[in-house]
Design goal:
Elements: E1 3-8, E2 11-17, E3 32-35, E4 37-42, H1 55-64, E5 67-72, H2 84-94, E6 101-104, E7 106-107, H3 113-121, E8 127-130, H4 144-154, E9 161-164, H5 168-180, H6 188-194, H7 197-214, E10 218-220, H8 229-237, E11 242-247, H9 248-252, H10 274-286, E12 291-293, H11 301-304, H12 324-334, H13 341-353, E13 371-381, E14 400-410, E15 413-417, E16 420-421
Parallel strand pairs: 4-5, 5-6, 7-8, 8-9, 9-10, 10-11, 11-12
Antiparallel strand pairs: 1-2, 3-13, 13-14, 14-15, 15-16
Helix pairs in contact: 3-4
The chain binds zinc ion.
Zinc ion is lined by residues 41, 43, 73, 295, 297.
């Protein structure tokens, strides 16, 4: 359908059907105009681990992928964003470097319940916690007692608590068993067996129970196990305030196709089998899964690959920022899903989680004039030049994708086109008032 977006003073004022050449109109031809995408699960790692990633490189990658706002995770940076001083350090670090708008989740870790109220007042859109070791010693995982202390603080704020939903006992048990029989850690099957579905199921069942008791929104990040879906569907049916995201890699890859030694595919929870993947797609279609994020989580190349191809030694995290739209669209096209659903799954859905719905993730009048110009027919193969994040390591290298971002506009100004980035970083922090 032909449409015209009318922009004034960096906001949308009207969406007209039909093509309408008014004033200094830009003609985008047959391209699809999508709301600026919002990614609520990105590890920028700055300050402190800027050699892994950083505001400049991460936000460039976002801009090239049609993403106009992202929310940073509170770990992998130093200091971890678990108090107001750390949030201020992040704000200082971002100065003049962000190509897109951004916000920062606060962290819930063992013993910091007393810092949460001040972080709420400082404007974080919500909090993230881990129910299992996070891979970062400075970001301590929480148990039910810690969760209760945090939820007591958050009750009434309406801010969500995001949770990495795996618990340790099933993982520890499975790992010990694999080691007893001297399993080969270069095999993907070994890694997959070490992160069983039960770890997710047990964590999610605890989180549902707490969301129901505290009536405080809890959000499951990066759901991988489709076996947790019936429980989540039932909880949502009875009005439990629980929401769910999955990630592009769980929708695109399948365990059966991952070569041994290919540690660029390592993440937690793990990429599971093809049948599991189809159930995730179905749940997304049915609305049990709310939206899709990247969980872009890079590290130094030596930590991901090094000289070892062992899955137990490699860093867990997949770098993908900037690729999510064509990756998702490729999968949607194969399953006969309409492009309009991208607006919910990659813009409106994540925008609601971060409480930005009046400003971001929509083409509606009054919202920031953020949009992506997308060619849904372009076929291409991902090469290192297409990756704008710091280290060009990604399981998507060599992937054949459908659809390409032609341009990205932030608050009425073009920040990216296929000729390159325009102007200088103009991204702002999207703190709550
Ligand atoms: Zn993450």
């Amino acid at each position: 359908m032909a449409a015209t977006l009318v922009v004034e003073a960096s906001r949308f004022v009207e969406v007209r059907t039909g093509s309408d050449s008014i004033g200094d109109a830009h003609d985008f031809g047959d391209a699809v105009l999508l709301p600026g995408l919002v990614d609520t699960h990105v590890h920028i790692n700055e300050p402190g681990r800027t050699e892994w990633e950083g505001f400049e490189t991460a936000t460039r990658a976002a801009a090239a992928g049609g993403v106009t706002a992202l929310v940073d995770m509170p770990l992998n940076c130093v200091p971890e964003t678990v108090d107001v001083a750390a949030l201020q350090a992040k704000r200082d670090a971002a100065q003049g470097k962000a190509w897109v708008d951004w916000a920062a989740w606060g962290g819930v870790v063992r013993g910091n319940a007393g810092s949460l109220e001040l972080l709420v007042r400082a404007g974080v859109p919500g909090f993230k916690c881990f129910l299992i070791h996070s891979g970062i010693d400075g970001f301590a995982w929480v148990d039910e007692g810690d969760l209760r202390a945090a939820l007591k603080e958050l009750r009434g704020t309406d801010l969500p608590l995001l949770a990495h939903a795996e618990v340790a006992p099933p993982v520890d048990e499975a790992t010990a068993k694999l080691n007893r029989k001297a399993a080969d850690w270069r095999e993907y099957a070994t890694f997959l067996a070490s992160r069983p579905d039960e770890a997710e199921i047990e964590a999610i069942s605890l989180l549902i129970r707490l969301a129901e008791e505290f009536r405080t929104p809890i959000h499951i990040v990066h759901l991988s196990s489709a076996k947790a879906l019936p429980m989540l569907g039932a909880a949502r049916m009875r009005g439990v305030p629980i929401t769910v995201e999955t990630c592009t890699h769980y929708l695109h890859f399948a365990a059966e196709d991952i070569p041994n030694g290919a540690t660029e595919f390592k993440c937690a929870p793990p990429i599971r089998g093809a049948e599991n993947r189809e159930s995730l797609w179905k749940a997304l279609e049915d609305g049990v899964i709310d939206f899709v994020a990247t969980d872009h989580s890079p590290c130094l190349p030596a930590m991901k690959r090094g000289d070892s191809d062992r899955f137990d030694k490699a860093w867990g995290g997949i770098a993908s920022l900037g690729l999510a739209l064509p990756v998702l669209w490729t999968g949607m096209k194969q399953r006969g899903l309409g492009i309009e659903r991208i607006a919910e799954w990659m813009a409106a859905g994540p925008t609601r989680l971060a409480g930005l719905q009046s400003k971001k993730g929509t083409l509606a009048p009054g919202a920031d004039a953020d949009f992506a110009v997308f060619d849904p027919e372009a076929e291409w193969i991902v090469s290192p030049e297409d990756l704008h994040f710091r280290h060009k390591i990604s399981p998507y290298l060599g992937a054949k994708l459908l659809g390409k971002v032609r341009e990205t506009w932030l608050r009425g100004e073009r920040i990216y086109s296929q000729n390159g980035f325009a102007g200088k970083p103009r991204g702002r922090e999207l703190a709550r008032p």
